[in-house]
# Entry
Amino acid sequence: MFARSEKTAELAADITDFTAVRGRSLFRDAMGRFVRNKAAMASVFVLGLIVLFVVFGPLIAVWDNEEIDWANMGDILRNGAPSIASGHFFGLDELGRDLYSRTIQATRTSLLVGLIGAAMALLVGTAWGVIAGFYGGRLDTAMMRVVDILLAIPLTLILILILVVAGRNFVTLFIALGAVSWLTMARIVRGQTLTLKTREFIEAARAGGVSEGQIIFRHILPNLIGVVIVYASLLVPEMILAESFISFLGLGISEPMTSLGRLIAEGAGTMAHGTIWQLAFPLFFYVTIIITMFFIGDGLRDALDPKDR
Amino acid sequence: MTILSVNDLKVDFDTPDGTVNAVKGVSFDIRAGECLGIVGESGSGKSQSFMAAMGLMPPNGRATGGVELQGEQILNLPVSKLNRIRGADVGMIFQDPLTALTPHLKIGEQMAEVLKVHKGLSGREARAQCLDWLDRVRIPEARRRLKQYPHELSGGMRQRVMIAQAMLCEPKLLIADEPTTALDVTVQAEVLDLMDRLKDELGTAIALITHDMGVVARMCDRIKVMRLGEFVEEGEAKAIFDAPSHAYTQRLLEAMPRIDKGEANRTETGEEILTVDDMKVHFPIRVEGGLFGRTVPLKAVNGVSFGLRAGETLGIVGESGCGKSTLARAVLRLVEPTDGTVSWFGKPLNQLDKKALKNERKDLQIVFQDPLASLDPRMTIADSIAEPLKTFRPELSKSERQAEVVAMMERVGLEREKYNRYPHELSGGQNQRVGIARAMINRPKLIICDEAVSALDVSIQAQIVTLLKELQAEFGMSMLFISHDLSVVREISNRIMVLYLGRVVEMGDADTICTAPVHPYTRSLISAVPIPDPVAERERARIRLPGELPSPLDPRAALRFLPSKLAAGEEDYVPRLTEVAPGHMVAEHDALEDIMAREKKAAA
# Structure
């Protein structure tokens, strides 16, 4: 408790030194601006609710997601509608399984797939693009040719190859999705880096003795962030869709596990029989996640741009 | 005869922060064959009054009052009617000739468009008229230019195309909005002469909008001085320059440096600290030819040598493309020199490894031309100023660093309240102070100012020059002051070096270079600088070098002032520098009369 560290000393100096001007930082400012953005904050709230639902929803579930309700599966249209009495809050699916439990499980999968896939793209794509763009020359050519070649091979083929070779499980799925999602990101980031690195303030930093690595972290990355975040928020729904496509091929997540994409596909297939709830519930979660992602991404972009008021 | 009569014109803009009164009721008349100067600094509303009069306003603007063109009310007319007036009765030229021309249309096509709209001419007839006007604005090889795109022409040539295009329908009124601000002095002189001739020959009325008192002195018959949307002073040019009555006009005239008068910098100087010897910077440029094209070296800097003493300011002048900025960056090793040595306190700067070079960077700093572009838009200005501190004095605690930054901000004239501002929230002058504070924070021994005041208004420019001089007196650093504006360079420099296509043509005391230049190139440069005094300005003889500023890729261009060697076939000859007086070096050259005579012969 009495340990002395420079950090605490500085903090103390900061707090006691009322005369000095307090420094602002980009991220502290961005936080303030983000909090003031009503649409973005509402989206964070709604997304938070969905996450809470995924975490605590199973506690009130009556049925397991694998269990088949043999009593009602004979007549889904009449007996399988959403009802509190029967314990099937979201109704039954075509095979007589509880849609409530299945939706929770599917939302969890899709959220993870979307966020982790986008995050992989964010990390790998940004790093790849910045390094290629900033150092330029032969390195740039080599790195970008790799991207070009990967882009030229059909995406599905790569996904299938990875999944077949490494086996089907959650981790491989994330790696496979990440492996294909960063390509476009790398291109976008490289283009931005190329224009940024010729700007005068980079030259000014170099004249000020700032090392190349620090230039990337202090000057290039903060100026890239707007584009990167907006693109990443667009990637989330793309990942969710890609996952449902792979699962459709039988390579992604397999029964009894499911994902929103698959639930929607199944629901759309049975829509004509009048069991509209099989489409409505998964679709509601899917659309809500995507819309909130867009607003949050947009809000982040605005918040991180000091020019925006 | 009155061409344009403006009566109590007001322009308002609706912005999220409320209504901005950009122009607060101005009235003026322009007669045929007259040049009216509207003088003012940025934000004074001088451009806006004309834009509004011509109906070229953004959607959130409102104009009230009266504008009569040859007795006809034109303010707030519908666009269809205005279009018949714009281009036919009124021609306009803008500051930036590149953005004002459509990049994907050939010169001939853009010009013909005007004729088609207003006179219904097309085809051969239109082309003949375009050609005629290109000749009249003295564009060499006019026929070839018709088939060229705007980016293939030099800045001066583009501005002449703009003028030719504006004059195609022989308008009664020509509105010139800062027509020469983006141009080199010699080109500026040419363009101004051209406008003057149009005025005399065709009786065109000219409204010249500018911030440059020198240009006004050369061109204008009457002047209106504008500030904050109002005229603060108006009258005959001579009267205003002789006895400005309003305090603002006086300040404006005082702030304007003069090439023909004034004191050069006379600070004490010490030992030579920087020696540049035979510096060369060549860039490989790909040109067409052969199957894959070939590379030729663009000799941006081609054998420059000079020395700089402690506490001294060396001015480097030359026209765009002469290699002044490249030279500065090569000295700092922001670009790698191809050849030559830079010795800094006896250490060979161009041979140091990365780490050693970084240590030296503490003492070598640079201030850039565009204050906004040279600051990171996502950093507060305090963070930008503190950056060199973080690199070179990492031992400072956060609060010590803050104290240093605040002290430096106050030293360069920024209030401490601005600590947390971002660059886009400050004006150009304030941002340049930030740039200077960042350069000065480690008390460097050398500062390179690369066109550091060129983008600023006259009065701000004067303030920054004063600030730099004060800082030099206080901290004793040396300066390399690069500018295309000779009058400013004279004011701040001890010595001046004149560059032409990567080579030194003349070097000497600031006063000597400005009052008694020897080399023909220096003489023509100096004679082209406008002086803010109508009487002196109009009596001065201009030394006009024939032809355009040649391309640095043309090997013969380097010997433009030694045509005798060219004629003798010695195209690789390097002109020697000779010392004509102590400290006054001049490059070998033929007599000016010879050069002119030869060029004339070549043209004929």
Observations:
- Residues 213 and 253 of chain B are 7 Å apart (CA to CA).
